[in-house]
Amino acid sequence: MVAAIENETGRYDVNTRRHERSRAFVAGNGLPARLLKRTLRQVGATVEVGRCATPPEASVNGYPDVVFATPDIGVDAVECVSTWSRVDGIAVIAFQNADVAERLELFDAGADDVWPVDISPEEAGARLRAVLRRVGRDRRLELTDGERVVSITRNDLMVDGASIRMTRIRHHLLFVLAENHPHTTGHDELIEKVWGYQVVGDEPGFVQTQVSRLRRELDRAGLPDLVRTARGVGYGLCGQFTRSPLGASGSSLGS
Predict the structure, then answer these.
(1) Which pLDDT does position 79 carry in this prediction?
(2) 14 to each of 1, 3, 34, 56, 244, how far by Cα in Å?
(3) Which of 85, 146, 199, 253 gives a 20 to 30 Å CA spacing to 131?
(4) pLDDT score at 119
(5) Which residues lie closer than 8 Å to 70 by C-beta, 6 or more apart?
(6) Cα 37 vs. chain centroid, distance in angstroms?
(7) Looking at the domain 137-253, which fold is it?
(8) How far is CA 178 from CA 56, 82, 107, 140, in A?
(9) With a threshold of 0.90, does the pTM exceed it?
């Protein structure tokens, strides 16, 4: 029986369901931050609590695997999320009770997840593992349409060798669609793989809105027709991809 799984973000013990050595930075110093610190330690994470430091200030001890923005950080939570979401390979989670509009704003700013303040240790552990699994992926998918080359990795989108800036959550949405190419990815599967839980999926039109915003970003990058809609089914990508680990050649995947 497999007892543990090693990856870039630490060691997950299958029997105890503890994700050991994952480093969490909790931005805030009030009661929510203290509650979150206790919950994270229960699931095996190493926790540091402080203000919403910018990445350069926090890099003295190395970057954490995940940053949490709590309600009492002293600055706007959206600003904190936006700052950290620009750093490749770090998950950003907002820890606050938020209504639909607030959750959408946090996701737009780059949050990978939004946790309610009363989250249980069991759910916290499951959602933390889901987020860290997504951040830890490291593969390249390339598309050639005869005119330009599009390269998608977990952390980058490049068009003809030029890096394209996107928010973290919409880049991950694009990456999930690319990973599933040439198949169509359904609404429920996108909710599970991109956001990791079902609450947001209950909001009417949520996925459609996020895909529309992704399309706007791709349009600005000169890729207006990259995402296709399968009415009543879900979404996918157009074109011919090759898929491989970084630094290796891949096999062709038809559209």
Answers:
(1) 86
(2) 10, 5, 27, 34, 28
(3) 253
(4) 92
(5) 26, 27, 28, 30, 32, 33, 36, 77, 95, 96
(6) 21
(7) Arc Repressor Mutant, subunit A (1.10.10)
(8) 32, 24, 20, 10
(9) no
Show me where the domains of the chain are located.
Answer: 4-135, 137-253
For residue 235, the model assigns a pLDDT of 96
Closest CA to 130 of 36, 196, 66: 196
CATH architecture, domain defined by 4-135: 3-Layer(aba) Sandwich (3.40)
Q: Give the integer Cα–Cα distance in Å for 135 and 215.
A: 22
Which run of H or E residues covers position 9? none
Per run of 10 residues, the mean pLDDT along the chain (length 255 residues) is 30 38 80 90 84 53 76 78 76 90 91 92 89 65 74 80 83 85 87 63 74 93 91 88 47 34
| CA–CA distance, 39 with 166 (Å, rounded to integer) | 31
Residue with tokens 């990795």: 153
Tokens 């529309």 identify what position?
Answer: 212
Nearest-angstrom CA–CA distance, 158 and 30: 41
Q: Residue 35 class from Cβ within 10 Å (0-12 exposed, 13-18 middle, 19+ buried)? A: middle
- Encoding tokens for residue 50? 């402080």
How much is the pLDDT for 170?
85
What is the token pair recorded at 62?
Answer: 């190395």
Amino acid 255: pLDDT: 36
pLDDT at position 147 is 73
How far from 170 is each of 1, 108, 177, 234, CA to CA, in Å? 37, 8, 11, 16
